[in-house]
Amino acid sequence: MFWLPSPMRHVLAAFALSAFAGTAIAQPATAAKPVRIGFICPFTGGSQDFGRSAKLGAELAVKEINEVGGFLGRPIELVARDDKANPDEGRRVSEELVLKEKVDFTIGFCNTGVALKSLDVFQNNKHLLVVPVSTGTAVTAAYPPAQSYIFRMSARDTLQAAVIVDDVLRRGLKNVALFADRTGYGEGGLKDVERFLAEKGVKPVYVARFDIGVKSLVEEAKAAKAAGADVLIAYTVGPEQAVVAQARSGPASPGRTTARGRRPSAPWSRRPAPRPRA
Which of 11, 1, 7 is nearest to 47 (CA)? Predict the structure, then answer.
C-alpha cells in the first residue's frame, strides 16, 4: 500500500519548501514557473500495485495543492516515470529526470534493489531524493547523514526486523525458517533478521533463497518442516509473497508464518500472507 492523498499532499508541500528555502520567497507572487517534481515508481511489473496507487495519490495531491494556489504562487508539476521494478530501468529514468528533465527534486522507489542502483545519481548531483516506500536498511546508509541527499518516509528494515524477531521469540517459537528473494530487499532483510536472531542466540533451522518470478516453493516449505521449523519469516513482495502463502498452506508446511513487518499467524491458517513493502 501507499500513503493516502492527504499525507502525500503534506509531503509534497514540505519537501517543496525545503528544496526552495531561501530562494522561493524572493520570487514574485505572480511567478508562474512550476515546481517540477520527479516521481519514480513501478507502474508495470510485479510491484505495479504499489506504484499505480502511489501515482494516483501523488496526482491527487498535486491537484489539491494547485487548486489553492500552488506553492508560494507556483504550480506543482509531476514528472512521472515507470521504473518497472527493474534496477537498470530505475537508473535510466533517474538519470533522465535529474540530468535531462532537471526536475527540482524527486520522490521515488518502491523496491529496495531499484533504489540502490540509482542512489549515486542523486547524491553525486546534489539532488534531493525522498524514498516513500522502500524499507531496505542500506537505502539511507550509503552516505554520511550530514552529507546525504537521500531521505526516507518508511521505517527501515533494521527497525522492523527487530520487532519481528522479538515478537516471534516472545511467542516461544525458536525453530525459525527464513525465506527471502534475491533482490536487494530480500538480501537486506535476510541479513537484518539473521543478525537479530543471532543476538538472541538463535540460528535459523532452514534458509530458502529464490528468484523473482518463482512459481512454487512447496519443496522449500517441505524442507523447512523437515528441519523442524515452527515459524516461517518471509522477506519478499508481490506475487512471490502469494507463492510463499500457497506453499505454507500444504500439510507439510511449518506451523506458523510471518511476512516482513507483520505478526505471525497463530494458529496456522490458509489465509494469504500479509503483503509487505519493498
Answer: 1
Same domain, 72 and 109: yes
Among candidates 101, 48, 41, 53, which has minimal Cα distance to 77? 101
**pLDDT-derived band at 22, boundaries 50, 70, 90:** very low
* Angstrom distance (rounded) from CA 170 to CA 265: 14
Rounded Cα distance between 272 and 269, Å, is 9
Answer whether the bond into residue 276 is a cis peptide, omega within 30°.
Answer: no
Q: Which of 134, 152, 170 is the last residue of a domain?
A: 152
278 within some domain = no
What pLDDT is stored for residue 20 in this prediction? 47
- Per-residue pLDDT tens digits for 74-89: 999 999 999 999 999 9
Domain membership flag for residue 264: no
Across the range 32-47, mean pLDDT stands at: 93
Same domain, 134 and 223: no
Co-location of 172 and 186 in the same domain? yes
Angle (CA) 197-202-205 rounded to 5° is: 105
Angle between helices 112-124 and 184-199 (to 10 degrees): 100
